Structure formats: C-alpha cells, structure tokens
C-alpha cells in the first residue's frame, strides 16, 4: 500500500503505520510532502492507495474523482501556533494554550516582528486572509516570508530567516531552535481538520479502507503527543 500526506501529519501517520503493521495489516509506504504538492500530484493522476490531507483539499479531490468521497474520514484537528527562535527573549507558554489573550496581542506581535514566516499550506492561506481582514497587508506585507516547498517554518526560525513564525502546532512541537509561544487565541484561531481517504485508483480499496479504519481507532491515544486534538 502506498500513501501520500502533507507534512503536518507525517509523524503521527508513521506511528499509526507501525501499529497497523504490528496488528497484521498490509504494510504502508508513506511519502509526506507539502500539502499543496501532495494534492496536485494526486489531482494529476499519481497512483496511490491512501491520501491524508486537510479536509477541504480532500473534498476537492473527491469532487474531481481522485478519492472516494464515501471514505473521507476525519482524523485529527490541528491548531496554528506562534513561535520564535529559541534564543528570543519572548516567553513561551504551555503548548496548546493561547500565546496572547486576544487578537490585539497577535496584531502587536506582527507589527513588532522584522520578518514573519508562514507556511504554504491551508494555515498559511488562512493567516494571509486574516491579516488582510485586519487591514494590515499594506503595513506588514513586505515582511511576510512564505516557507519554501519542503522547508518548515521551524527551519526558517532556527536559521534566523524570520523572527516570528506561524504554523501548525504539530509542525513546530519539538523542533530544534524554536520556542513556541502558544496557539492563536480564540478570537482569531486557525484550526485545520486533517482527514484520510481511499484513492479511487487504489490497488485494493477494501484493504485500504481497513487500514484507514484502523488509523481512526488507534488515533485518539496518540494525538496529544503529536500536537493535535481529536477531530
């Protein structure tokens, strides 16, 4: 079995694959790339058995006929977090807790930052839309730095390319050179539900569905350790 996913869920999926194999299910080879690239490859007809992406991306693939819509299954919910380089004087908070009390704190952090990193995935798009909604694009637009394909925002922070970064908490947690300030506060939270689906060209749709069902049953005990919530 061959699966493709966005980078955000790669560590969780790796652990789920090990558990599935130990339970006697078919082996799964996982390739994790940027979510935009993964969706484009599946849309272009690349043969895979299972696809794990943000739910809206999977829904688009279902409409195009590349994944079985009936198999689309939510797995985890991911919150966008704010981080700084580890040498920063900014105070970290407990991961999963808001970095600021409200949106005004986030706006202040954006205005104070020299360079702001964001991802190529759905969280990055949502962040840009939020900044535009706040009327801040003209003010800080030249300081926004989109992570290059295959380069996480954590890498930009660790390398000193940006001094403030926004990405899925699961992508920032445990990364070297990064200090997580917390997730976005409730009045400007960006949440993404990641789901799985069986590809319409799966070599064995029934086996692929059994693996997906196993993942759903085995996910709950693992989510917190990977920076997710249950979907």
Question: What does it look like?
Answer:
- This protein folds into two domains: 2-76 and 193-230, D-Maltodextrin-Binding Protein, domain 2; 78-188, Periplasmic binding protein-like II (D-Maltodextrin-Binding Protein, domain 2), CATH 3.40.190.
- The chain is 36% helix and 24% strand.
- It has helices at 10-22, 35-43, 55-64, 103-112, 122-133, 137-140, 153-158, 169-172, 205-219; strands at 2-6, 29-33, 50-54, 73-85, 116-118, 144-146, 164-168, 178-183, 191-198, 229-230.
- Strand 1, helix 1 (10-22) and strand 2 (29-33) form a beta-alpha-beta unit.
- Helix 1 (10-22) packs across helix 9 and helix 2 (35-43) packs parallel to helix 3.
- The protein is elongated, with a radius of gyration of 18 Å.
Keywords for this entry:
alpha/beta; 2 domains; ten-stranded mixed sheet; D-Maltodextrin-Binding Protein, domain 2
Topology:
Elements (H helix, E strand, L loop, with lengths): L1 E5 L3 H13 L6 E5 L1 H9 L6 E5 H10 L8 E13 L17 H10 L3 E3 L3 H12 L3 H4 L3 E3 L6 H6 L5 E5 H4 L5 E6 L7 E8 L6 H15 L9 E2 L1
Parallel strand pairs: 1-2, 1-3, 5-6, 5-7
Antiparallel strand pairs: 3-9, 4-7, 4-8, 4-9, 4-10
Helix pairs in contact: 1-9, 2-3
